[in-house]
Amino acid sequence: MMPQRSHLVGFGSYLPKKIVTNDDLAHYVDTSHEWIYERTGIVQRHISDEQETAVYMGTQAALKALEFAGEKAEEVDAIFVATSTPDQIFPSTAARIQAELSIKHGFAMDITAACSGFVYALATANAFILSGQIKNALVIGTEVYSRLLDWSDRRTCVLFGDGAGAVLVKAKNKEGGILSSHLHSDGSIGDILYVDGALGIKDASGYIRMNGREVFRHAVMRLSEVVDEALKSNGMTKESVNWLVPHQANLRIIKAMGKKLGLMDSQVIVTVDRHANTSAASIPLALDEAIRGGRIKKDDTILLEALGGGLTWGAILAIY
Ligand code: COA
């Protein structure tokens, strides 16, 4: 009998109501639409209000993913939430979302891998499904990066946005689904992108700090390696990839990866122009848009990749 595989069966997302354009930001810091757009491809971002918490947005995205799949919340075995911006240190965002969905069985946990968080969380869900411990999982990325930003630091505050995305994965005795996942980290270069401090740490700002040039350099290098690794481990060539669904940090990094894979621009899902970098939420937001928009179709091969603070990076190859 065909072994169980994790299939992506439901997709949902949530974006805060408030939109902040590059021109709006130029009122706060010494920047311009041209500078931001030329270097990053970003035009605008969504910013949460007080009600649009990580739990609220994650729950909304999860409900839409369940609706898409025609599944009920009480059927969900596990919830994995990727976030670097939890509303509380604990209970986890995942446990809070579990409660919002009135689920009382199974388990829920948060995974922190900064912008690689969704890839890490989906890889974890896949491992639990392949081991036979669960039959399905909600995998959610939900982020309120506006809380982590120093709004007087033009080098970082223009790059990020808030939002959430969710995917329901389900075990099926059927070919396709997640083919493989590839996770990496290198803590020795953690200081090129980090949050300065945590609760109770003296003299810490609690804000994101970044060496943009170094992050850019590592992103292109590491993502190229991991994409090759994903293809090689499946005995596939780049021609078999129909869609690149990358983490949305910077259009120049995204385009470099599309070019490496020999893809046309139309085969690369881009949301960074409208969402900016929503960290762990960016891939499920992009997936939801591309699937509901009818671009990614059944049996298409999709490649997810991301790099973030840690450094962490990874890729997942899947058939929808
Ligand atoms: N508006 C206007 N000027 C800005 C600016 C802004 N928002 N941010 C920085 N600058 C200035 C800098 O102060 C610097 O001026 P100086 O030379 O007078 O000091 C100049 O622009 C160049 O800065 P630099 O940081 O070298 O720019 P860059 O070409 O590397 O672009 C990034 C900066 C952040 C856009 C780019 O490095 C990048 O995209 N890196 C990857 C970041 C990323 O994706 N992080 C998340 C990963 S998950």
From TrEMBL:
Residues 231-317 form the Beta-ketoacyl-[acyl-carrier-protein] synthase III C-terminal domain. The last Arg residue of the ACP-binding site is essential for the weak association between ACP/AcpP and FabH. One of its GO terms (biological process) is fatty acid biosynthetic process. InterPro entries: ACP_syn_III_C, ACP_syn_III_N, FabH, Thiolase-like. It catalyses: malonyl-[ACP] + acetyl-CoA + H(+) = 3-oxobutanoyl-[ACP] + CO2 + CoA. Homodimer. Its EC number is 2.3.1.180. GO terms for molecular function: 3-oxoacyl-[acyl-carrier-protein] synthase activity; beta-ketoacyl-acyl-carrier-protein synthase III activity. The keyword Transferase applies. Pathway: Lipid metabolism; fatty acid biosynthesis. The lineage of its organism: Bacteria, Pseudomonadati, Pseudomonadota, Alphaproteobacteria, Acetobacterales. This is Beta-ketoacyl-[acyl-carrier-protein] synthase III. Belongs to the thiolase-like superfamily. FabH family. Keywords: Acyltransferase, Cytoplasm, Fatty acid biosynthesis, Fatty acid metabolism, Lipid biosynthesis, Lipid metabolism, Multifunctional enzyme, Transferase. The active site is at 115, 247, 277. It is found in: Cytoplasm. One of its GO terms (cellular component) is cytoplasm. Catalyzes the condensation reaction of fatty acid synthesis by the addition to an acyl acceptor of two carbons from malonyl-ACP. Catalyzes the first condensation reaction which initiates fatty acid synthesis and may therefore play a role in governing the total rate of fatty acid production. Possesses both acetoacetyl-ACP synthase and acetyl transacylase activities. Its substrate specificity determines the biosynthesis of branched-chain and/or straight-chain of fatty acids. Residues 248-252 are annotated as: ACP-binding. Residues 109-187 form the Beta-ketoacyl-[acyl-carrier-protein] synthase III N-terminal domain. The gene is fabH.
